[in-house]
Write a structure and sequence with these properties.
alpha/beta, D-Maltodextrin-Binding Protein, domain 2
């Protein structure tokens, strides 16, 4: 696109696998700033001129949620808006249930997904993903409930999750192990949105809620004394901004822009704003 040298790190479109990127320390280099990271100069490859449309399940605070004025806000929204600003376009947010995010982008309903989407091999078959955060999984309990040291200790208990999330998959995998051991299975109750799953825990309809650490921490801060964690996070994974493989130019634009944000300190400031410094890539 005539921009000269550029530094781009993404997963899915190039010769590097996720494990190779980690082994090479490329993610750490990205966090420290790259020699060629710079503000994007040319118009991005987007479906609607002047607007980059993001698909996001906007019900996972503090990552993405609606304000009382029904305006999208959160860390992912701040990052997406900053990317749009640096690309010289406006940001539009398409609120999609989590399980529908990938079908939506493949159907051309948006240009990119920013929605705490974990980088997984099956997703990399159809998407390119720019790593920009780590995320963690926990079990959220009502305050005063007996601690749950591990997923196996949820045997015979009712646990809320959101359809299509990693928490659901991990609980299903634990059920396979429990079945082999001849123990009662976890009663996994799936909901389309996090708000509904949290309400079930709050009202005592379930014993626990399998969810990412980021919203769990937010819920506890919003209502001190109401919820508690089962313990430290039991799972850690990279999160990525996803783009259809048919749009490598936009993938490169986003990767380059994230690198620039990391280098000039904007990335760190946004994480600090939402108390999520522990999720920073490179830590």
């Amino acid at each position: 696109m005539g921009r000269g040298a550029r530094y781009t790190v993404s997963i899915g479109s190039g010769p590097f696998s996720l494990s190779a990127l980690l082994a090479a320390g490329i993610l750490t280099m990205l966090a420290g700033g790259a020699a060629h990271a710079a503000t994007v100069l040319a118009p991005p490859a987007i479906g609607k001129p002047g607007v980059i449309t993001y698909c996001s399940a906007i019900n996972l605070p503090p990552m993405e949620f609606l304000s009382p004025a029904t305006k999208p806000e959160g860390l992912d929204v701040d990052i997406g808006d900053e990317i749009a600003k640096r690309l010289g376009v406006k940001a539009a947010w398409n609120n999609v249930p989590f399980s529908g995010l990938i079908p939506a982008i493949l159907a051309g309903q948006c240009d990119a997904i920013i929605s705490d989407l974990f980088i997984k091999p099956e997703r990399l078959k159809v998407l390119d993903m720019v790593p920009y955060l780590y995320s963690h999984e926990v079990v959220l309990l009502k305050a005063g409930s007996p601690k749950v040291p591990g997923l196996a200790d949820l045997s015979g208990k009712k646990v809320a999750t959101v359809t299509g999330t990693t928490a659901t998959i991990l609980l299903q995998q634990e059920n396979a192990a429990l079945k082999t051991a001849g123990k009662p299975l976890i009663d996994i109750v799936m909901f389309p949105e996090n708000t509904q799953a949290l309400q079930q825990l709050e009202f005592g309809q379930v014993d626990a809620y399998g969810v990412a650490y980021e919203p769990a921490d937010y819920y506890m801060r919003q209502d001190p004394g109401k919820f508690a964690l089962n313990g430290p996070p039991y799972f850690k994974i990279l999160t990525g901004i996803a783009v259809d493989k048919k749009n490598p130019a936009l993938n490169s634009d986003i990767s380059e822009t994230i690198a620039a944000m990391m280098k000039d300190g904007t990335y760190g400031k946004l994480l600090a704003k939402w108390n999520l410094q522990t999720d920073a890539v490179g830590k």
